[in-house]
Each structure stands twice: as C-alpha cells, then as structure tokens.
Amino acid sequence: MDILYANQTVMLKEAKQVMKKVISEDPMESLYMVDLIQRLGIEHHFQEDIEAALEKQHFIVSTDPIDFFQSHQLDNVALSFRLLRQGGYSLNADIFERLKKNKVQLREAYGEDVKSLIAVHEAAQLSIGEEDISLEDSGRLCRELLHSWLQSRHHHHHEAQYVAISLQQPLHHNLPRFMDKTILLRNFKPDKESVCFMELAEINSSIVRLMNQHEALQVSKWWKGEAMSKEPTFGGYEALKWYMWPMACFTDPSFSEQRIELTKCISLVYLIDDLFDVYGTLDQLILFTDAVKSVIWIRLSNAFLEERHWLNSGELPKTEEYLKHAVVSTGVHVVLVHAFFLLHQNITHKSLAIFDDFPNIIYSVAKILRLSDDLEGYKNKNETGFDGSYIECYMREHQEVSAEDAQKHVEELISMEWKRLNRQVVLSTDHQFSSSYTKFCLNAARMVPLMYHYRTNPSLSNLHQYVKSIAKCQ
Length: 474
Known about the structure:
Blueprint: H1 2-25, H2 27-40, H3 47-63, H4 65-71, H5 74-86, H6 103-110, H7 114-124, H8 133-151, H9 160-168, H10 181-184, H11 192-225, H12 239-249, H13 256-279, H14 282-288, H15 290-293, H16 298-313, H17 319-329, H18 332-344, H19 349-354, H20 360-380, H21 390-397, H22 403-426, H23 435-452, H24 459-471
Helix pairs in contact: 1-2, 1-3, 1-11, 2-3, 2-5, 2-11, 3-4, 5-7, 7-8, 8-9, 11-12, 11-13, 12-13, 13-18, 16-17, 17-20, 18-20, 18-23, 20-22, 20-23, 21-22, 22-23
C-alpha cells in the first residue's frame, strides 16, 4: 500500500503539471481533460484544476454564446455545455436553438457525425425542465438520428456498440466506475499528455480496491457480531449487498468511515421492512430490538403501516396518495439524512431544521427509486395478485389506459423527476447542501437505473463482479 501511495504522489504531480499547462494554453482542450478525469473516476484529485478550467471556459462561452456556437464544432459546444451545467454554472440552453430548427439540415450536417450527435444526447441529460426546450428538442432529434444510424449499420460495425450503449446508458445517469472502459473511453486516444492520467487512474483503482476489501471485511464482521444476524429470519442476509450502495455513492476514497457507517444504516432499513412483514405492527417492531428502534423515523413507520393497510384490505389508493407513502417507504430519506450527518458530523438545530420537511433533493431520489422499482416489477410480472404498485393504482384510476401507456407514463414521470433532481444538484443557488452531499444524492439516483434496468445495463454485472472479487479476499 505504501508503494502505491508513493507512485500515486509521483504520477499525480506529473498529471497536475499537464493539467495546468493545458488550462493556460487551450481552454477547450482542458475540458476534454476534465471529461477524461471524470470518466476515470479521479476527479477528487483535481477539484481546484477542474474549477479553474470550467471558470475559464464559462467566461469564453458566456461572453458571446452565438459566436462560440458558430466558431466551434458541435461536439465542443455540447461538451462545454454539459460540463459547465454539471459544474453548477448558469448557461442558457438557447445556444441549441439554431440546431433544432431544421431536421433535414441537421441530418445533412450531422447524420454521420456520431461523436457530435452523442455529445448533444449526453448534454440533453442535464435538462432542468421547461427552460431547456431547445436543449431537449435538440437532444431528441440527435437521438432519432443515432437510432437511424444504428438501423443502417450491422451490429458488428466498430462504432455500433458504442452508439447503442451511449443511448442506453448516458453518462449523467450512470456510474463511470462500473461502465465498460473500452466504451467509456472510446474517443480518448492515449497520447503523451493523457498517459499520466490513465496510469494515475490505475493506481487509484488499486488503492480503492484495497480500501473496499478492508471495509467489506469490517462490515461483515460487524453484521456477524450483531444479535439479529443469529435470528432465523435474518440469517441469510449478506452485508455486502448493503455495502454496494455506500461503496458506489461515496466515490472519494477518503470517505472510508462514511461508507462503513452508512452500510449499517442501510441494513437496518432493510430489517425494518422485513420486520413489518413478520410482526405487522409498530408496537411489536419496537419491542423486538433497540437497534431498530434507534433508526425509525416516524415517517418511515407510518408509511409502512399505511402500505400494510392497503395490502391487507386490497384497496387501491389514488396515485397521489400512493406516492405520498410509497416514496417514504423506500427508506431513501433515512439513508440520505444519515449520509448528510456522516459528511458534516456536527448536528445543530439549523441542520436538523433542514429535514423538518422533505427536501426536494431527497424526494426526487426517492421518487426515482420507487417508480423504477414499480416499473421493473410490473415488467417482470414476477409478483402475483395485488402488489400495490403505482402502475396498478394508475390503471385503476384511469381505466381507459392500456398497460403499455401506463408504463410510458411512469417512464415520463421518472424523466421529469430527473430534471427536478438536476435543478437541485447542478443549479442549487442557496447552498443549503454541500457539493459532496449533492454528489452523493446524484450517485444514489444513478444507482437506480443500474439496479433496476439490469437487462439493458451491463454495468450491473461489472458491479457484481467487483463485489464478488472483494468478497473473496475476506
């Protein structure tokens, strides 16, 4: 481990020198460096450099947006917009207005320009809603052109897999750490300037793997030492399944303690859910164990009780009423609030007051998870009888709607919630939450398509293989 850290220090020094040089000489090229750094998962080493690169580019773009659009290639424009919006810079999406005006001209100009079409598609994932009509329309047109391009190519075409995965797994909705690196780094040709970043990423990956192995061992020991692990109901639980979420969402290697402690919180949320299945009432649940009692929130308990009432009675609530409780019963608010205090440590009346209501950023993550869970469950049709999903409630409330249309409606709701989350994460102006916390929330949302869209997301297999590899070292 000491050798790894020593090598990291040497390589990091070289990479920072390269980064500073590129920022001073070529602002646009520095953005490609930022993109590469983020895809490699080593941005925690370059926070100041990334901020410097973005600030310089923002000045250039905002000075004359129209001139910037006209004097740069489309992929450069889209990359600039995506990284600046992602970095929290205010940038008007109207720069894409000219792009969407004529579909025929767009096809003639960019129909074969896969790199530019994907760049706009990726930028469109940062939409925050109605203000971004130009961006959304441009993204939709580019996706249509990419699908047309795919249909005219054999699936063995050297770029076909790259296009297909880019359409299915946009960067903003995924965790680069578990994506296929040959796809993730498709447009990055190793050169003298980028080699040091690649090597630094390899060293960082080795360090993180060793840390994760150590953390997984601690988590397993903790669970085996808990009295609840001896209970027949919970004997088959695997602590590493709980650990996956903190491991993926706390990406900075320095957050080791936070990953371990949040795993414990997640485990108890799962236990609460199952204990309701076993005991059915809050009184019996509280009597069962003080450990569970310590993590119950009134909201979570009430949501479980309400859902239990629906299941027992067979009565379907209205969709609005369903979501009111179902979003809470995900337990996401418990986990995200714990993450907040793990990051900020000091608990004050002011910090507690933030969570008196359901903060929008937490609500959005919870809603994305709940709707995705319901949608995937309905598609699988593994459940029999009444399961109380949103789709069932919606179809009962709108009896003229087909199952296919109900699923499309849920997909639209998920898309809308991503836009609200974007607003909270990338355009937060009140500084209610730190960047480290908003990034954690964003990563939690990114875990959802990874876990619930597993048929079209090979990253889940990469995640499982990684967890198995660290489990073998225990």
